[in-house]
Structure formats: C-alpha cells, structure tokens
Design a protein that fits this description.
It contains 3 helices and 9 strands; from the N terminus they run H-E-E-E-E-E-E-E-E-E-H-H. The protein is an alpha+beta fold.
Length: about 220
C-alpha cells in the first residue's frame, strides 16, 4: 500500500512544483505598440526581467522567433519622470535596473522593427520580472560555495528586501502623518477664526441694541 500511495502522490508533487516555479506571463501586441506595467519599488531595489518575443508567421501559421525584430525596454519613475533604463535588445534577452527613488516605476516594452514595415505584425511576448536582489548564477557558484551558504545568502537577501520595504512604508506613514497634522492645524485655526468673528458680531449687536434703547428712552 505504501508504494502505491507514493506513486499516486508523485504527479501531485510535480504539479505543485510547476505551480511554484512558473511565474512568467505572456501578452500580445502589434508592431510598434507599447505595453507598460507599473511596479511599486522601495529605494535601492534590484529588478531583473527576462523577455522572449515571437512573431506571427503567415507562412508557418505559428509564432516564430525573428532575429530581425528588436525589443525596446524603457523604465521611468512616475513621480519624478526620470528615465532609469532605455535599451534595445534581441527578441530573447534580459534587462536589469536599480530603483534610486521609492515609488511607482513604469516598465514599458515595445517592438522596434519587424519583418513587416508597412503592415501590422502580431507579436507574442513572454515576460518574467523578479523584484529584489538578483540571485547568483548557480552554475558559477556551485564549485565555490556550499548549498548551505547559498541558502543563507538567499535568506539574507530576502531579509534585506523586507527591511527596505518596511523603511519605505515608514517613510510613507511619516509623510501621511505630517499631512494630517497640517490639515488638523488648519482646521483648528479656521474654527478659532469663526469663533472670533461670532464674538465680534455679538459685541457689535449688543452695542447697537444698547444705543437703540438709549435713543428710545431719550424720546
């Protein structure tokens, strides 16, 4: 019974492994069309992206890789408008950048040229974005570090990413608290001004009524 149960559990384990490791997405766009994604990043965060573009072939009736097609990658800081990355690469390539300011970053991809200059060409683009410190190449590190040290380094990198995220959230909370204090202070001064105006109006009315009754007594 035990070997039979293990055989039944093996396909489930394989499916779970695939579900964990498969995190890339794909989308479709036309020639010279730009597609953007917004990612909120803390300061000094390394972002690594891998893309692969396939062009529709009427001859083969399927998506194929066209070496003449290039992919333009642009990364902009939305708050400051600063351009972080602007690079053109082959259909299958990688890009890496580091965020210098906290906030939203727009990651845009577009095809710069294709097989068709005068018509519209459909492109399927696979994109995988990893936010955080880039992992070391396992093929390069296998002969230099042990498996335990690699896990410890990966854990330290994740802790550093969490620390930067917490620092970013604290900065946002401080900015929001300062804004709330300024708003509350303005509301208090507005209430004080209203009270002063009401008091001045009451004093003026009392003086006016006093003069009115004094004039009536004189007559």
């Amino acid at each position: 019974m035990a070997p039979s149960r293990r055989l039944h559990l093996l396909p489930i384990c394989l499916l779970l492994c695939l579900a964990v490791t498969t995190n890339a997405l794909h989308f479709y766009l036309d020639t010279n069309e730009k597609r953007c994604f917004v990612e909120e990043l803390p300061t000094d965060t390394i972002v690594e992206g891998h893309y692969r573009a396939l062009e529709w072939s009427e001859k083969d009736q399927q998506y194929v890789e066209n070496p003449e097609m290039g992919i333009l990658v642009e990364v902009d800081e939305l708050d400051t408008g600063h351009n972080v990355v602007r690079t053109r690469g082959p259909p299958d390539s990688r890009f890496t950048f580091t965020s210098h300011e906290p906030g939203d970053h727009a990651i845009c991809l577009s095809s710069t040229y294709g097989a068709s200059w005068f018509g519209s060409t459909h492109i399927r683009l696979y994109l995988d974005i990893v936010v955080g410190r880039t992992k070391a190449d396992p093929e390069h590190d296998r002969s230099h570090v042990s498996q335990l040290s690699a896990k410890l380094r990966d854990l330290n990198q994740k802790l550093e990413d969490v620390r930067r995220e917490q620092q970013y959230q604290r900065e946002r909370e401080a900015n929001f608290r300062n804004l709330s204090e300024v708003t509350n202070s303005r509301a208090v001064w507005y209430s004080v001004a209203q009270i002063l105006v009401l008091l001045a109006t009451c004093v003026w009315q009392l003086r006016h009524l006093k003069r009115f009754f004094e004039d009536r007594k004189m007559h």
